[in-house]
Fold this protein.
Amino acid sequence: MATRLQFDKRHYRSVGSTNDIARNLADEGCFEGVVVTADEQIQGRGRTGASWSSPVGNLYQSLVLRPKVSPSIAGQLSFVTSLALHQAITSLLPEQDCLCKWPNDVLCDGAKIAGILLESKLHPSGSLNWIIIGMGVNVAHKPSEAPYRVVKVNELTGGASISTDELHSEFLRAFAALYASWLDFGFSGIRRLWLERAKGLGQPVRVRLPKEERHGLFGGIDENGALVLQYGDGTEDLISAGAVFYDLED
Amino acid sequence: MAKFDVSEDLLQKLAKVLKEAELTEIEYEVDGAHIRMSKAVEQVPMMQAPMQMASAPVAAAPALPASVVAEATNTAASSGHTVTSPMVGTAYQSPDPSKPAFIKVGDSVKEGQTLLIIEAMKVMNPLPSPVSGTVTEIIYNDGSPVEFGQPLLVIE
């Protein structure tokens, strides 16, 4: 059985990005479980280099992992991470309607509440050196302009306030359990949990790829986490990178 | 739970058999895991991992040492190292669309230097060069899907 992940928390007031700090620590050889948090990020980033608004009051964290697995399955950690965040939010806000969106978004009332981006480093031989899970959660603030609907934790609490520390502790607790399960028993259990919480199964979606957009039905995910896009003629595609839009509400 | 232990040693032994027996193709199967190695000039070297791999991280194969495969399979093609994709994903030539490409044909690269990024399930995987040398060929298209084991570029 895998040893339970032990966290080593490093908090900063202001950083360029928590991923930058975590990457340096990982390259210096830090242990798995080092987790960098910051009050604010000056240069928070999202997918394809998009900036991620990072004022004081939200949660910013980067977690260093060194799982002894093939890099070909590291993408499964996206689902481990979003499930852990889903679990953290719903344990603090049990009444909330929260769902997962491929590959690693968590939606509350249909709006995006966090951004999760993972980054790996491989040895020249091809084996996995480290993987860093970067995550920003809208707790006290949300972006004023975004190309999708956004929400913050503290507008879902009915007036109560949830601290970033409280949310982060819940996240780490959930993550440690799900990560151990993934290491010990593989992806099938994680996949099942994720599909039970996935938004829009069997419904029309658009998937924006680097050079085109495809329309089809969201047919779930395969054994490795790739999105199954089903077409009217009975064929399907497996998508490993792209942005998903739910046709019915956008 | 099927185990699939692809060691560098195993690949080198297979390559030796392939070369010494003057075969064009060799297949090796154990515990449900299957490797096919060929040295036909037109043929792409394939590593076929069993489906169990996806659901069993601990028992999963260690990463495929790209340089070893290239040495094993390119004996008839060229002296270069064919860098292959260690995963299914989407390949990008630059860190983001506004930035220049990591490398271009003719560039000298050092072992460990980033050649491209492969994105899979929102994990960004910069691919380090397995060897030092000169980039002689880039085989993939920017922003296009790549398969496990697919040749991406050649370094001589």
